[in-house]
Amino acid sequence: MLNKDKQLKIYYSIGEVAQMFGITESTLRFWEKEFPQLTPKKAGRNVRQYRKEDIETVKLIYHLVKERGMTLPGARQRMKDNREDTLRRFELVERLKAIREELMNMKLALDTFTYEDVDKLKENIKKIEN
């Protein structure tokens, strides 16, 4: 039986990882040369197999280079000198993005709420209280 749940996969192909981040496979191969922290396992015929740890490293590199606009040497130095601090900041940014998205969804839900809905809700509350 094939495992369709991506969360349970142990290894990901270079194509899958490239697709996750919207980058090319050649970009990933280049980053492997530029960042010693990125070391996917290589199976027969040099087929790359990315583990979750490798994907987290790619995510951090992507954040520094593509989202924050750092140069490759700057990102490499940041990961070398302050990897833990950089990782903590990245995780904080990710959590803030998730909170922002949740708040935007709540705002959208509230925007569709009408005065009629409020009146109906008040009536239902009164019925429940009595």
Number of strands: 2
Strand composition percent: under 5%
- Rounded mean pLDDT is 87
Poorly predicted segments: none
User: How far is it from the N-terminal to the C-terminal residue, by CA?
Assistant: 56 Å
* Overall tally of structural domains: 1
Would you identify the CATH architecture?
Orthogonal Bundle
Q: Give the biggest sheet.
A: 2 strands, antiparallel
Radius of gyration (Å): 22 Å
Apparent shape: elongated
Provide the succession of SSEs: HHEEHHHH
CATH class: Mainly Alpha
Largest sheet: spatial strand order: 1-2
| Helix content percent band | 55-70%
Q: Would you tell me the structural class of the helices and strands?
A: mainly alpha
The CATH topology name reads Multidrug-efflux Transporter Regulator, Chain: A, Domain 2
How does the SSE layout of this entry go?
Elements: H1 14-21, H2 25-34, E1 41-42, E2 48-49, H3 52-67, H4 72-81, H5 83-111, H6 115-129
Antiparallel strand pairs: 1-2
Descriptors:
68% helix; 6 helices; two-stranded antiparallel sheet; mainly alpha; 130 residues; elongated; Multidrug-efflux Transporter Regulator, Chain: A, Domain 2
Fold and architecture overview:
By secondary structure, this protein is mainly alpha-helical. It has a single domain, classed as Multidrug-efflux Transporter Regulator, Chain: A, Domain 2. The protein is built from six helices and two strands; from the N terminus they run ααββαααα. It has helices at residues 14-21, 25-34, 52-67, 72-81, 83-111, 115-129, and strands spanning 41-42, 48-49. It has a two-stranded antiparallel sheet with strand order 1-2. The longest helix has 29 residues, at 83-111. The radius of gyration is 22 Å and the shape is elongated. The N and C termini lie far apart (56 Å). The model has no long low-confidence stretch (mean pLDDT 87).
